[in-house]
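Re: the request from the purification team.
They wanted to know what the chain is likely to look like in 3D before they choose a buffer screen. I agreed to run a prediction and write the result into the notebook, where they can find it.
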Amino acid sequence: MAATYLRHGRGRSRNAEFAEQFGRCPLSRAIPVVAAEAGVSRKLARAALEHTHDGEWHHVGKYACECQYYDPAEAIAALEDAAIRAALERELMVAEMQDKILDAIGARELRAAGASVKWHRELVKTTAGEWDYQIAGIAIDASYPRFSGTTRDVLEASRRAVALGFSAIVSLPQLRRYYRRDATGWQAA
């Protein structure tokens, strides 16, 4: 039998109702509030809400599914801080640039064919002497049984990634292992 909160006319748990009385709400309702109050885009409002999220969740809906609850007032306060706002805007700009790069190599088509295309990060020592993950290239995994594209598509995408200055880590069922392609050529990874 499914757990439900609909028997008494509610659609959420009592704790979710208490949270909403204190101004917290699901992301879909919090984004428009933050965007309107702070005068920012919906993308920046979402980034601020995720930045200030404290992990609160409640059961909602017919089957008592877990739903994250956010505090719009906290996100609005964070956007008023110039340093936090600048950092969130910078993160959004970097994410948009990364999406454009993936589009340039044909990642959308590869994903539609069933391949996994992700940014490959490696642990490197920064100039400050600390360890951090930085983008090292693009990982293309076409070894899934559901991949319906061709080997040529994958190799062409890796060639485009190298032309843009990135290394490409490729996995194909025919290769049975990972290979890295960079400006110098192919190497076993």
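For the purification team: The first strand starts at residue 25 and ends at 26.
Please add any questions underneath this entry.
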